[in-house]
Write a structure and sequence with these properties.
By secondary structure, the protein is α/β, with parallel strands linked by helices. The protein is built from nine helices and ten strands. The longest helix is centred in the last third of the chain and has 22 residues.
Length: about 300
């Protein structure tokens, strides 16, 4: 039996005085234990909506999601979720961020410390455990976010564009770090990305989604040795194939949603409701700016 089963899920968002918007319709696929699967497709195709349902933050209108034999109906410790901007607790140190989920599970001090040492080792964060997120580089924050999500040993790790906030010059290096981190933890991953090269470098499979109701255009298995060689003909061939598939997916149907003043496209996709991550991101940004401004003033 597959670790993750997505069975005929449909998700519809409604807007006042507008027709209902079908984001996903009758979508089905499975993920085997240990696989790294990327969801790739044009903006508005439902990638993040799907990932949010896998995390249990949204429920499908039809169909069901089953993880390790259990129906997903709400967030739970069997799923680790990493947001695009990492969503680290800015008032906590690296150590405290990592230990957070272990304290929630009420593990003993000994168990917490053993797991902390293990995670600091695989993430190469020894020496930084007492720093705060604002004191870390983007790459280090990304590693903290991933190992925090892995701390409680989830069945699956869900990544929402984990490198989306990283500048181009650092992106490939951090892809290598992320690949090593995930392989070291031997975990199953579903990742949302817009980056074709990233999907080929990291994934065992790439599911290409259409802009029309999130239909699966193609499920591409990446048959390349690890670590991946970006300059190899095989790597370039997969990049070319997936680039063409995404182009086809975009031209199948361009989703046209009128966005009310004061809202972003992401807000519209969530039925004009401000999501938890949006609110949290603004709070984190405000905290970070305040700390930075205070230091400059000094």
């Amino acid at each position: 039996m597959a670790l993750l089963e997505v069975k005929g899920i449909t998700k519809i968002f409604t807007q006042k005085k507008k027709p209902a918007h079908v984001v996903l319709e009758n979508m089905s696929f499975t993920v085997e234990r240990g696989q790294y699967v990327s969801l790739l497709g044009p903006s508005g195709c439902g990638k993040t909506t799907l990932l949010t349902m896998l995390g249990g933050f949204l429920t499908p209108d039809e169909g069901q999601i089953v993880l390790a034999g259990n129906k997903v109906e709400r967030p739970g410790p069997d799923r680790g979720f990493v947001f695009q901007n990492y969503a680290l607790f800015p008032w906590m140190t690296v150590k405290e961020n990592i230990l957070y989920s272990l304290k929630v599970k009420k593990l003993s001090k000994k168990e917490q410390n053993e797991r902390l040492q293990e995670l600091l080792e695989i993430s190469h964060l020894f020496g930084s455990e007492n720093k705060y997120p604002v004191q870390l580089s983007g790459g280090m924050q990304q590693r903290v976010a991933v190992v925090r999500a892995l701390a409680s040993r989830p069945e699956i790790l869900l990544l929402d564009e984990p490198l989306g906030a990283i500048d181009f010059q650092m992106r490939e290096l951090l892809q290598e770090e992320l690949a090593a981190l995930v392989q070291g933890a031997k975990t199953t991953v579903v990742m949302v990305t817009h980056d074709v090269n990233e999907s080929v470098y990291l994934s065992d499979r790439v599911i290409v989604m259409s802009a029309h109701k999130g239909q699966i255009v193609q499920d591409v298995y990446i048959d390349l040795d690890r670590p991946r060689d970006r300059q190899s003909e095989g790597f370039k061939a997969y990049v070319s194939e997936l680039t063409e598939l995404v182009r086809q997916a975009f031209h199948e149907k361009v989703v046209d949603i009128e966005i009310p003043p004061g809202f972003t496209e992401k807000d519209a996709n969530y039925n004009n409701q401000i999501s938890f991550t949006d609110a949290y991101n603004r709070m984190t940004s405000k905290y970070t700016n305040n700390v930075t401004n205070t230091r400059v003033a000094k």
